[in-house]
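User: quick one, sequence for these C-alpha cells?
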C-alpha cells in the first residue's frame, strides 16, 4: 500500500482552467478537472452569477442566506470571479487571464464569446497554446456546423434528439427521459476527455486547439446497443417489449425490484432458477431456458412465474439467491439507498465539500480512483465573486483601485 509520503501529485496540478460555464454540462466537466488537481477559476456574471445558483432546492444558512443544492453539487474545488465581459476593462482583465491559462471552457451557446470579440481566432493570438473547449447543443466550429448548429439545447432536447427517449418508458406510453441530467453530465465527461486529448496533443506539438463538443454527438455515441442493432438488422429499437435485446428483466420483490440482465441463452442458470423456486417442470420447455423467445414471452410468461416467488422475499435476498444461480443481478435503488450504500462508502464515492455557510453538504465524488495519488480535494464551492481580488489583481492585471471602481460600477 502506498504511504502518504509516497503519494504522487494529482495529475492536473499546475493546470489552470477558466470555467466560463453555467448550469450543469460545463460545470460538471470543470469539476472533474478541479477534482484532479487543476486550478479552476469560475467566470460568472456580476449580480446573479451562474444561473444554477437560483435553482431549487436551497440549503439555508444560519442567518437566512441560501445556496442552491444543485450548484453545490457540481462546483466544488473552484474559485469564483464575477466579471462583466462587456466592460472594456473587464474584457482586458479576462484576456490577461487567458494569456496565462491552459484551458478555457465555455457552454454559453454557439458564438457567445465570439459576439463579445472573444472568439477562438482572437484568443489563440493571445495564447497559441490555449485549449478552448466549447459545449454546445449541436457543435460550433468551422467546417462542422450542421443544420441544427444554431439551435439552443438542454438535457431533455438532446435526450430526445439523441435517440434515448424513443427507447425509454412504458411500451404503450410516450417517449420518456432518463430521470437525471444525463444529457448534461454525459457531454461533461466527454468534454473532460476531449480536453485531456488536446492537452496531450499540445504536449507533443506546443499548439493549442478548439475542442468542439456537441451534446447531441455525445448522446448518440452512447447508443451502443440500439445503433449496432439497427446497422445489422435494419430494425428500429423502440419501447416495444419485442425489441428487448436479451433477458433484461425488472422483477418485483417484497420491498422493491431487482434486475436480472443478459441471460438470454444461459440454459444452466435458468435451470438453477426454476429449481430454486420449485418450478422444475418449466425446465422441460426450452422457451423457459431462453431459447428462441421474444421479449414478449419474457414479459407475459417468465416474469410472472418468477414473481410468484420473488414477491414474497426482500429484494436483497432475491438478489443474492439469483446471484448464487449465476445470473448478473442488481437491486433497483433510489438516491436514499445510494446515500446509505456501504459499498459506495468503501469506494469513497461521497465527499463533504461544505455548504458555504460553515455547514456540511454531501456530494457525489468523481469516480476516478488514482490509487497512488491523494484523495479528491474537498474545497467548498465558491461564493459569487469570492476570489475577485485574488485573481483579478494578480493574473487579471487590475490594481486594487481599478477593482474598487469596477465594483462601484457593478462590473464585477
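Assistant:
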Amino acid at each position: 500500500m502506498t504511504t502518504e509520503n509516497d503519494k504522487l501529485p494529482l495529475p492536473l496540478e499546475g493546470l489552470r482552467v477558466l470555467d466560463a460555464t453555467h448550469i450543469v454540462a460545463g460545470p460538471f466537466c470543470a469539476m472533474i478537472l478541479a477534482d484532479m488537481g487543476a486550478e479552476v477559476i469560475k467566470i460568472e456574471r456580476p449580480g446573479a452569477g451562474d444561473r444554477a445558483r437560483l435553482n431549487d432546492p436551497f440549503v439555508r444558512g444560519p442567518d437566512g442566506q441560501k445556496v442552491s443544492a444543485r450548484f453545490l453539487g457540481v462546483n466544488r474545488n473552484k474559485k469564483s470571479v464575477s466579471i462583466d465581459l462587456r466592460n472594456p476593462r473587464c474584457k482586458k482583465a479576462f484576456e490577461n487571464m487567458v494569456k496565462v491559462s491552459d484551458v478555457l471552457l465555455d457552454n454559453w451557446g454557439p458564438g457567445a464569446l465570439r459576439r463579445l470579440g472573444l472568439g477562438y481566432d482572437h484568443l489563440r493570438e493571445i495564447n497559441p497554446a490555449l485549449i478552448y473547449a466549447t459545449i454546445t447543443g449541436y457543435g460550433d466550429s468551422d467546417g462542422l456546423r450542421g443544420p441544427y448548429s444554431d439551435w439552443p439545447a438542454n438535457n431533455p432536447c438532446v435526450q430526445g434528439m439523441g435517440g434515448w427517449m424513443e427507447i425509454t418508458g412504458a411500451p404503450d406510453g410516450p417517449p420518456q427521459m432518463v430521470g437525471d441530467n444525463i444529457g448534461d453530465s454525459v457531454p461533461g465527461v466527454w468534454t473532460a476527455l476531449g480536453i485531456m486529448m488536446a492537452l496531450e496533443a499540445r504536449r507533443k506539438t506546443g499548439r493549442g486547439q478548439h475542442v468542439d463538443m456537441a451534446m447531441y454527438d455525445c448522446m448518440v455515441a452512447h447508443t451502443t446497443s440500439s445503433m449496432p442493432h439497427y446497422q445489422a438488422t435494419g430494425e428500429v429499437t423502440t419501447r416495444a417489449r419485442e425489441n428487448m435485446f436479451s433477458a433484461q428483466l425488472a422483477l418485483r420483490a417484497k420491498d422493491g425490484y431487482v434486475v436480472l440482465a443478459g441471460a438470454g441463452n444461459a440454459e444452466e442458470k435458468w435451470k438453477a432458477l426454476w429449481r430454486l423456486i420449485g418450478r422444475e417442470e418449466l425446465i422441460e420447455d426450452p422457451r423457459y431456458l431462453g431459447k428462441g423467445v421474444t421479449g414478449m414471452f419474457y414479459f407475459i410468461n417468465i416474469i410472472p412465474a418468477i414473481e410468484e416467488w420473488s414477491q414474497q422475499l426482500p429484494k436483497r435476498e432475491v438478489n443474492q439467491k439469483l446471484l448464487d444461480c449465476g445470473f448478473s443481478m442488481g437491486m433497483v435503488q433510489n438516491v436514499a439507498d445510494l446515500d446509505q450504500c456501504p459499498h459506495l462508502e468503501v469506494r469513497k464515492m461521497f465527499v463533504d465539500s461544505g455548504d458555504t455557510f460553515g455547514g456540511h453538504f454531501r456530494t457525489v465524488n468523481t469516480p476516478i480512483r488514482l490509487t497512488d495519488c491523494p484523495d479528491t480535494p474537498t474545497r467548498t464551492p465558491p461564493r459569487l465573486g469570492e476570489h475577485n481580488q485574488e485573481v483579478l489583481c494578480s493574473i487579471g492585471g487590475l490594481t486594487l483601485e481599478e477593482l474598487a471602481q469596477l465594483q462601484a460600477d457593478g462590473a464585477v
